Amino acid sequence: MIIPIVGFVSIKFFEIDKFFYIIINFFENNELFLILLIIFEIIIFIFNFPTTPFLIFNISVFNYLGLLISILSLISASVLTYYFSNLLKLKTNNEKISFYKMKYLSKNLFIKIFLSRFIIPFYFHNLLCGIIKIKLRTFLLIVLIVDTIGLFLLAVLNDIILS
Hints:
The protein is an all-alpha fold. The chain contains 8 helices and no strands.
């Protein structure tokens, strides 16, 4: 939680938000730019780059439209990483994966996945869920709930610090 606070405070302190307003005025009504931004972020998130700076950028520049862009990017990247990890599972048959699958899927699956989404980094959580073959419906529900909560907290933090 410290990284977003430092990011928003540095935006306010160094007056980077004036630069963001130039970006907003130039690209605000350009749907092609927004679509390309979503595609770029999906690619970045799939290849295990840190997500927080991009999320802070989206929310700082585009406010609640940035929140929607971030949600779309995170969910799309999560699902694609989930599917890629399913392909990885097909190529490897490891005893350790079977052990962790039995341990992870034993009881309280929804709660375990929900809480691990907050603890395990974004990319590794998606890989883990795909490798142990959690149902896609359960995975999507958890990703939608947890990421939406986190992004709304970032948006509120942005409003508090930048106002």
